[in-house]
Amino acid sequence: MAENINGIIGAIAEKASADADKIIALAEQYAAAKIADAEREAERIRAAAAEEAASRCAFIAERSESNARIERKKAIAGTKTDITDEVFAKVCKRLESMDDNRAADLFAALIAKYGERGDVALIAQRYAAVAKRIADNPAVKAKGIAVKTESSLPAGMLLSGKKSDKDFTFRSLARFYKAEVGTDVAKKLFEDGGGQV
Predict the structure, then answer these.
(1) What are phi and psi of 147, to 5 degrees?
(2) Residue 48 and residue 71: Cα distance in Å, rounded?
(3) What is the pLDDT of residues 115-144, one digit of tens each?
(4) Residue 47, CB half-sphere, CA atoms under 13 Å: how many?
(5) Choice between 78 and 163, residue whose per-residue pLDDT is larger
(6) 188 CB-contact burial (10 Å; exposed 0-12 / middle 13-18 / buried 19+)
(7) d(CA 71, CA 68)
(8) What integer is the mean pLDDT of 48-63?
(9) What is the predicted pLDDT for the residue at 27?
(10) Are 76 and 46 within 8 A, CB to CB?
(11) What is the pLDDT of residue 55?
(12) How crowded is residue 143: how many other Cβ atoms within 10 Å of its Cβ?
């Protein structure tokens, strides 16, 4: 039984990794285009500032160049942040569009790993059709965890326990992983020199 759950978890992880690779590949293409646009706009701003500065004294010209570099860095940094935010918004959207059976397998695996005896698994109303399948999972049954649907819950699941609640809604998972790996994702997207300041 544990091998079956491990197999399911492994398959889910493998699919999630493949999906993540696809998302990152698309994001890299999108990032390259956005960074090029930002660099062109930053260069236009810099050139305009340089032309104005040339007509003034050397002190003003130096100051304008410095300001232009700062604005360029800000523009590129802002674009990188926007792109990283968009990547994780797409991750959330993909999780929310997961079919019910895959979601049921994921929820059962999460309950098996993080559930404690007596917890209640609240799943979004959207997954009502697979609630019984989740509840009948041997790992869920073994922990004595009730599975209920909740109409106000966004896509995903919440494990409600005596000690604490564990939020596995897909929005929360995307926010968590953005906080955990967002910097690494940004580095990966921009590591080839795209948008280096």
Answers:
(1) -115, 125
(2) 12
(3) 888 899 999 999 899 999 999 999 889 989
(4) 6
(5) 163
(6) middle
(7) 5
(8) 69
(9) 65
(10) no
(11) 66
(12) 16
DSSP letters of 100-127? HHHHHHHHHHHHHHH--TT-EEEEEGGG
Burial class of 54 by CB neighbour count within 10 A (0 to 12, 13 to 18, 19+): exposed
Cα 102 to Cα 15, 63, 66, 109: the distances in Å are: 10, 58, 53, 11
Comparing C-alpha atoms, which of 37, 33, 41, 30 is closest to residue 185? 30
**Tokens at residue 194, please?**
């795209």
Amino acid at 165: D
Contact 189, 31 (CB under 8 A): yes
Residue 63, φ and ψ in degrees, nearest 5: -65, -40
Mean pLDDT throughout 164-191? 79
Nearest to 155 by CA among 138, 137, 168: 168
Q: Which of 190, 191, 193 is nearest to 79 (CA)?
A: 190
Q: Which band of pLDDT confidence, cut at 50, 70 and 90, is reported for residue 36?
A: confident
Classify 125 in phi/psi space as left (phi over 0), alpha (psi -120 to 50) or beta. alpha
Contact 150, 169 (CB under 8 A): no
